[in-house]
Amino acid sequence: MATSCGLKSLLTLMAFAIANIIAFDLSAQPIAQRGSTPVAALTRSSLSWTVEQTRGKVIVTTANGQSAFTAFADKRTDTEETHYEIASLVGDVLSVRERSSWEGGAHPGHLSRLRTMRLTTRELDLPITALFPERNVVAALLRDTVVATALKGAPVATLAALIEAADGGCEIGFDELATSFAFHHLRGDQVAIRFGLPHGCEAMRGRYTEIGIYLPIPLALREALVQSQQRRQLMQTTQSARRR
């Protein structure tokens, strides 16, 4: 059993290190097919919140059940479709994967990204610097080969400067880097963060890229992250649940 667990942990770390960039092209799939298969109800809970994905909605309820609201809702019309899936829940920070498609113009449009909400305040597109020291985030991103390539040696000291300087061409748009993230898994005293970035220009519409980094776990997040790992509500396990 110990050998099996050790091998499983090693494979997890190898997969994260090798696939620190994952790109998907969703542009070839017509609107009539995307999201046509219903997603089974998925429920995640933290110390103060329960989040349920069912019937095209991501519904948030307080732990005592006294109040609830719809954080995200799928949208479907004859020309437009948006679908949401729970990516991770850590304390009052909910991350979802958003996929949108629409008809119009010479070619259909497609967009995939991660969205993050702070449930306590209902703040949408919460910046990662609200949870981690900016210097740690910037230092980790600078070590990533994809980010380093996009920067082309440009010196940056802040996340805003990094986003401004990064040039991902048509493949990767860095504009939403600060707010498009989810919690993936834990490794010792570090947490793996995945940034989900859309395409950089319309010629590559539908392309989706994930960039992975490790950050030291802040004391304020430690209890919530451990609980999320135990309850299988980090991105690594929510992705696995959907593949089964």
- Low-pLDDT parts are 1-5, 7-41
Shape: flat
Strand content: 35-45%
Structural class: alpha+beta
Query: What is the domain total for the residues?
Result: 1
> What's the mean pLDDT score?
81
Number of DSSP strand runs: 13
H/E topology pattern: HEEEEEEEEEEHHHEEEHH
Strand order of the largest sheet: 6-7-8-9-10
How would a crystallographer describe the biggest sheet? 5 strands, antiparallel
Describe, in plain words, how this protein is organized in 3D:
The protein has 244 residues and is an alpha+beta fold. The protein has one domain. Helix content is 25%, strand content 36%. The protein contains 6 helices and 13 strands. The protein has helices at residues 2-18, 134-142, 145-151, 159-165, 219-230, 235-243, and strands spanning 21-25, 42-45, 49-54, 57-62, 68-73, 75-76, 80-90, 93-102, 109-118, 123-124, 181-187, 190-197, 207-216. A 5-stranded antiparallel beta sheet has the order 6-7-8-9-10. Strands 1-13-12-11 form a 4-stranded antiparallel beta sheet. A 4-stranded antiparallel beta sheet has the order 2-3-4-5, with no helix packed on it. A hairpin with a 3-residue loop joins strand 6 (75-76) and strand 7 (80-90). The protein is flat, with a radius of gyration of 18 Å.
